[in-house]
Amino acid sequence: MSHLDLLRQAAAQAPVVVLQRVEPHPVGMALGLLSVALGIWLSRSGAADPRWAWLALIGTLVGMVLYVSWKQLGAGWRVDFAARRLSPVGQPGADVAMQGDGWMVRTGPGTRFAHMAVDLMHNERGMVARLYEHTVLRRGHRKQLSALADAVAERLGAERTGPRY
């Protein structure tokens, strides 16, 4: 079961859900960049031994694999459905109390290429919080993220806007 499916199920049933972005662990990028830098430095220093080039290439490839496969939880929001209250997790900001009407849960483009986001909006205040963002390279991801937005909107008693898949 994917991370998005687990989030959707939690949003549909749990009294409180934490929506945190899944991000690549920085070790993969660091290893890849260090390996590239090592390869450039060795090629300029005159080290003609091909074993050094292979070492740099293997380090770069291992860094790429780690970047794609090793994930960690990033910033997000803790959503208390009964209290209609959101609290930031791992990021600066204040709690959001959803009082009154005019609240919307919107799906739309994310901040990065091929990302889709779930935002909490208000008619008068505009965008209040980016609840969740995920890569949507496959149609299945868009469907899962749309279902997550549907579940959050229904549980919060907010209008659901934006594209549905």
Explain briefly what this protein structure is.
The chain has 165 residues and is α+β, with helices and mostly antiparallel strands. It has helices spanning 3-13, 26-44, 50-69, 139-156; strands at 16-24, 71-80, 85-89, 96-97, 103-109, 115-122, 126-135, 159-161.
Number of strands: 8
Shape: elongated
> In what order do the strands lie side by side in the largest sheet?
1-2-3-4
Summarize the helix and strand pattern as letters. HEHHEEEEEEHE
Major beta sheet summary: 4 strands, antiparallel
Tell me the fraction of residues in β-strands, as a range: 25-35%
Helix content: 40-55%
How many whole angstroms does the radius of gyration measure?
A: 21 Å
The total count of helices amounts to 4
Terminal CA distance reads 19 Å
Weakly predicted, low-confidence segments: none
Structural class: alpha+beta
Mean pLDDT: 89
List its salient traits.
four-stranded mixed β-sheet; single chain; alpha+beta; four-stranded antiparallel β-sheet; 4 helices; 165 residues
Describe the structure.
Strands 1-2-3-4 form a four-stranded antiparallel β-sheet. Helices cover 41% and strands 33% of the residues. The protein is elongated. Helix 1 (3-13) packs parallel to helix 4 and helix 2 (26-44) runs antiparallel to helix 3 (50-69). The relative contact order is 0.17. The protein has four helices and eight strands, in the order αβααββββββαβ. The protein is of the alpha+beta class. It has helices at residues 3-13, 26-44, 50-69, 139-156; strands at residues 16-24, 71-80, 85-89, 96-97, 103-109, 115-122, 126-135, 159-161.
